[in-house]
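Morning. Coffee machine broken again, so started the prediction first thing and wrote up yesterday's gels while waiting. Chain of 405 residues, entered below exactly as on the submission form.
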Amino acid sequence: MRYKNNKFYIENVSVNSICKLTNTPTYIYSYKKIKENILSFKKQFKSIDPLTCFSVKSNNNINILKIIKSFGLGADVVSMGELNRVLKAGISPKKIVFSGVGKTEEELKFAIKKKILLINTESESELITIEKIAKSIKKRIDIGLRLNPDTDARTLSKISTGKKENKFGLNKKDLLKIINNIKNSKYLNLLCLSVHIGSQITSHKPYEKMLQELSDTIKASKYKFEYIDLGGGMGIKYNKNEKTLNYIKYLHLIKKFLKKNKCKIIFEPGRSIIGNTGYLASKVIYMKKSGKKVFVILDAAMNDFMRPALYGANHTILASKKNSSKSKKTYEFVGPICETTDKFLSTNKFQVLKEGDIVLICDVGAYGIVLSSNYNLRTIPQEVLIKGSKIKTIKMRQTLKALNS
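Came back before lunch.
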């Protein structure tokens, strides 16, 4: 992804030529970047041979899941809908883990029927439900238990999941008690100890504390786990000043952990695989001056891309075509929805824009289209995949007729 002759290209196709075919707003993904990210992740952890289960909540497009599957990855799912989707994409049930604090009895029955690798359990009540189902079908069910390690991931508070005040997992005391009870169960086969402390983590330090909590818990439990699921959460760069996780240091910590605890590692990466592979192309509808401020009103809105409104997240915005003017402008990029939070970025160093120009909101591959909605009865954007010079529609734009049927 780069500028060529002042036009922004995704692989071998200019964004302006893509938008002539698709209109806007449109999500655009790069196959080459998805492949590069998967191979890079696998290379980083090759020496410990983990099972890598892509976090489907980050992006659930079936065509992207088929790419994920083609490189040998499994899936981490959090609903029956996601489980059904990954099975349709051809991912092996034996590479699927089912996470989440509120799995219904219907969802649990479906997961058990599909013989997935693990159901990662997060409460005693959930265990009771699984055991009830297991008794009714006279089968032993493979499960994991999720530990809440009370570890601060040092990320956005809204995407932190490993502190004691968060709803996820079991505290150490309760978990040890449950392990002791499971040892005598005819219907629960405890294979895994699971943990996930948050998302967009850019330091190895929280992982160091997490691994120590895991080691202490395993030692106290006197239980031999076949799998340790370390979750995901590895961050990406949303702007050039941000740091990224030092994978070498994280791998060193995991190897140190594995010397004491012989087991197979499971990872659940999402953002680090798909985050920087996607762009949201949007057209400038109006330029509106208000005092000293200039609002750039886009045809993309918070219903199309929710992260800035939901998390206060900042995403770089680029012009699809560079112009010859050297002057830089102060702009606030906003959407057309009647909410003050429907804005994407404020910047004082942007090239001169005019109505009808195309801009790109960057790094939207994770938690982009999956968080979109029909708020204000707006239709869901189209999604396209670029592979070399080919443009493939992987999800059609929702029509007003379908929306109102």
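The domain at 2-29+276-403 is CATH 2.40.37.10 (Lyase, Ornithine Decarboxylase; Chain A, domain 1). Going to sketch it on the whiteboard this afternoon.
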